[in-house]
Amino acid sequence: MALDLEAIANRLEPRFGKAARRWVGTLTERLDELVAQWGLDLGDQLKSGNSSVVFRCRPPQGEAVLKLSPDSYAVREEVDMLRQFTPSGRVPAVLATARGAVLLESIHPGTLVEKMPQPPSPREYAGFLNDLHGAGDPATAPRRLEDWVDVLFNSAAQRGADLAESKRLRDDLFAEPTDTVLLHGDLHLGNVLSGGAKGLAAIDPMACAGDPCFDAVDYVLEGLDRAEMLRRRDELAEAARIDVRRLDTWCRVTAPIGATYVSNPGHSAELAAFGRGEY
């Protein structure tokens, strides 16, 4: 299989700097090693973000996904957290690991929830969240939610987000006692796949320990207008048995962050208004 190594290096370099090019220079050899080690039939390269390369493949166990990254620590963390979530039945199984690489179960049909013509119902999504949060030990989390929110704030501030109210609301939330679970931490709907009869499945955790409401935020804010956001908020909170007031506050905390990411100007404006409590 011919790889566009230049395109891969250009995609990874913003994240890893010049080290990305050194790593890409060894990628073909590394793939050959893993193909031999795990008995893989390597398939197409899949779309991925700025931290990894991902391929379809077929090991002896059946269809799978091979993921490699210059950041071997992040791969190790992902493996550990996926194993924590495994009892939920809501993440791909880890089939094999090596330094900087992991072989994962392939999820079928694997459609991204953000691409589905009909989104999951609040009840279906509540079941998914409750299964995830019922598995894993928050004591194993590599970070606390407080620290992860700071990272999100810092990134959003660089993109010009107005976070004054978000920070006030965040402080109010952290001042109140609440349940603590092992959170996925990055549960935007590009990290949730349709697993067919098996239900929804999560990939690429940025796991942290904290309030279960946090993982519910992206589903709410994916509504394209405030009326749909409010409907999702209320129905999801009821179905998942989470505090609707806390869920609403977390949505207001993170809506200004989302407003700096989305490409649809109308949706961005709706998120900004939601963050200001204009509903």
Folded structure, characterized:
- This is Aminoglycoside phosphotransferase family protein.
- It comes from Micromonospora peucetia.
- Pfam families: APH_6_hur.
- By secondary structure, this protein is an alpha+beta fold.
- It has helices at residues 5-16, 19-25, 27-38, 72-85, 122-133, 145-158, 164-175, 217-221, 226-240, 244-259, 265-275; strands at 41-46, 53-58, 64-68, 94-98, 101-105, 181-183, 192-194, 200-202, 208-210.
- The protein has two domains: 5-105, 2-Layer Sandwich (Phosphorylase Kinase, domain 1); 113-275, Aminoglycoside phosphotransferase (APH), C-terminal lobe (Aminoglycoside 3'-phosphotransferase, Chain: A, domain 2).
- Helix content is 47%, strand content 14%.
- The strands form three sheets. A five-stranded antiparallel sheet has the order 1-2-3-5-4, sandwiched between helices. A two-stranded antiparallel ribbon has the order 6-9.
Question: Which helices and strands appear, and what pairs or packs with what?
Answer:
Elements: H1 5-16, H2 19-25, H3 27-38, E1 41-46, E2 53-58, E3 64-68, H4 72-85, E4 94-98, E5 101-105, H5 122-133, H6 145-158, H7 164-175, E6 181-183, E7 192-194, E8 200-202, E9 208-210, H8 217-221, H9 226-240, H10 244-259, H11 265-275
Antiparallel strand pairs: 1-2, 2-3, 3-5, 4-5, 6-9, 7-8
